[in-house]
Amino acid sequence: MDAERREFALDLAAPLETASGTIEQREGIALRIAEDGAVGVGEATPLPGWTESPATCRERLAAATTYLDDGDPAAALDAVDESPAARHAVHLALADLRARQDGVPLYRYLGSVGRVERVPVNATIGVGSPDDAAAAARGAVEQGFQCLKLKVGAGTVEEAVERVETVREALPRGIALRADANGSWDREQAGEALRAFADSGVEYVEQPLAIDDLEGHADLRQQSAGVGVALDESLRTASIDDVLDAGAADVVVLKPMVLGGLDRARRIAIRARREGVAPVVTTTVDAVVARTGAVHFAASIPGVDPCGLATAERLADDLAPDPAPITEGDAVVPQGDGLGTRGPWEHTVDGENRR
Ligand SMILES: O=C(O)CCC(=O)c1ccccc1C(=O)O
Ligand SMILES: [Mg+2]
Predict the structure, then answer these.
(1) 151 is annotated as an active-site residue
(2) Which of 33, 56, 106, 175 has the fewest CB atoms within 10 Å, measured from its CB?
(3) Given 3.20.20.120, 3.30.360.10, 3.10.20.740, 3.30.365.10, which CATH number is that of 118-332?
(4) Which biological process terms from the Gene Ontology are attached to this UniProt entry (predicted)?
């Protein structure tokens, strides 16, 4: 077994705001494992505030690479056990390698039984004026999206409500609307927002309250008049059992980079589903390797709800061509062996290898 790492940095064409700041660039490390002529690729794209720091990620991945070179994948996974982005890379590279060796697409390797052609996705509408958001929403619907997610955490609750109402009025009937508050409200504000969103037919709100307020989210579900509560940031610190025991979520938003790999994310998805909580797959706006891994993960969940996987266009550049393009509001699932990515080894960013 032979492992290699390459660092990359990709600018966002359209910055994305989250509670921990605006994301303008994604830096990460691509990992390539070769064994007897077969190759697997993985990606660690840490996001400060969401995963381990880039420095820790780099250090853990270097340690794992040594074990991979020694032909000891179990030791490599151990070395990244507490670094989710680094573990994501190691697990994905190994899974891609095994799936290619087995001659099956990654989603089959992950445990799906039938053929899955497409995964429904949501368009992601960032911050901006209500009119800007409405224009972006109309554009997304023209491209075929049936589900839109609006960022609503910046500004006041009144502004969030106005944003949602303006978008809803601009849309044809039947388009699903979600909102993401990124943990920026207190309990009173969240109650007010969800009551108002009910009139606009909002399906659910991601992370209305602070990351550690499971009890508040459980209370909110009781008084939310039909608007669901989704947890995203909370899953960084709370286990799925904590979430289920607290009755804190209708939906869990699963980011494999944050959860430490597709295997861990998939276990959470299955457990959640069994308890009637819907899994939704998304990314931290990752490069093509991790994004495609997330598409396969979503495809491995039968009849998955629309996922937050339409983020390729947010990147000004990428590591390799996209094997899972979005058409008519769906990601097309690659059916070749493994991930189905070509590269990224042949594609270095800005022509430089920053390893
Ligand atoms: O889910 C989506 O539609 C896109 C991804 C997204 O919103 C996101 C991207 C990076 C970091 C955080 C988040 C988030 O869900 O809060
Ligand atoms: Mg979110």
Answers:
(1) yes
(2) 56
(3) 3.20.20.120
(4) amino acid catabolic process; menaquinone biosynthetic process
* Residue 149 designated active-site: no
The residue to which tokens 């891994």 are assigned: 293
Q: Measured from the CB, is residue 308 less than 6 Å from ligand 1? A: yes
Which pLDDT belongs to residue 20?
65
Mean pLDDT of the region 77-105 = 98
CB 77 within 8 A of CB 315: no
Q: Is 45 in the pocket of ligand 1 (CB under 6 A)?
A: no
Identify the CATH class of 2-103.
alpha beta
What is the distance between the alpha carbons of residues 160 and 81, in angstroms, rounded to a whole number? Answer: 39
Name 209's bridge partners.
none
Give, for ligand 1, the residue of 311, 314, 326 to mutate: max count of ligand atoms closer than 8 Å to Cβ. Answer: 311
Which tokens belong to 353?
Answer: 């290898």
Query: What is the predicted pLDDT for the residue at 19?
Result: 59
Which residue among 58, 108, 151, 217 is the active-site one? 151
All CATH 3.20.20.120 domain ranges in the chain, comma separated: 118-332
pLDDT per position as a tens digit, 299-336? 999 999 999 999 999 999 999 999 999 999 999 999 99
Ranges of beta strands (E only) in the chain are 2-18, 21-35, 38-44, 118-120, 123-125, 147-151, 176-180, 202-206, 228-231, 251-254, 278-281, 326-327, 330-332
Q: For the whole model, what pTM was predicted?
A: 0.96
